[in-house]
Amino acid sequence: MSQETFTDICPTQLIYGSIKDKITRIIEGKECIIVTTSHSPYSLGIIDIVKQVFKENNVDYFIYDKITPNPLYTSVKECVDLTKNFGDFILGIGGGSAIDAAKAVSLMKNGVDILNSDGNGIPVNGILTLSGSGTEVTPFSILNLPNGTKKSIKAHMFLGKCLIDKDLQLHISDKYQCALVIDILSHCIESYLSVKATPRSMEASKKGIQMIFRHGKIGIQQVREMDCISASVIGGVAITVAGTSVPHGLGYYITTHYGISHGFACGVFSCAYLKLSEKQEICGKRLKLLYDELNIQSGEIGLFINNLLYQFMDKVQVKEQEVAIMVNEFLASGKNKQHPDFLDKNDIKDIIQESVSVIA
Questions:
Q1: What's the pLDDT tens digit per position in 40-59?
Q2: What is the annotated signal peptide range for this record (predicted)?
């Protein structure tokens, strides 16, 4: 199973191979706005390659490299303001943050009010340096707003093409690789259980879980051997159809307020979420089918996630008064409606209290 099986869902053309050999295929015009970060695209030599190839092909460019992890709406707006009279295509270079920001820039360059309305952007392509977020095949862009909350922008935009050079994945640290693996698994679990899941999306979710999950405690070497590039794509296909739910919705809070990386933040709540889901009517039946088909025991996926997670971090400590805030923000986000069984405030509170250390 590959992304080509789902081109009616995810139309992005994925181009695999060396950046040097393939980069001309993602040129869409004569004025490119490059949206990226200030770190790995430079240290890996990607920016130098892009500049050289653009020069050889008479493509002018503007580099906006102020994108941070968990990209800011204000950064996207600044990029658009700085390029008012420039740019006929966008190139995002990086992982989920840079690509998400590039999609948002594409839309805003075409006059779309990305927070309140849908629309089309100018052409946008990507060079992916980190596989895990699924952004290479999804239409989503997640931005941090000035009020400190995260928002999946209303406007949707797929990349036209995305260049994936597997050699770029080798620079990822062990810690970050585990965070990406947890993010992929969270995508697959949440989309599998989603109220929007279809037979095709559930097949993708199941395949992604099968590609990532391992029985028992595993080491970093086994994580390194996983095909995260393919699993990220499959997980991205699944959430394009079915979306994410509880672990993602709760994870945004501890990412924003405690600096926990996105993948780890989702992992923090996954074990308790699965434990509750197993007891519910619709999700319980779905999980039983999944476990039977993949020969997984109850609790094994949560244990797998926690074994990866707590090699690199301690249990998150959250102040007692924040629990109610987290519950209310989660319910306001509407992520509970993605879950097919009923969830009330007490259910969400229980997931939080089981997943973090609540302190006075």
A1: 999 999 999 999 999 999 99
A2: none
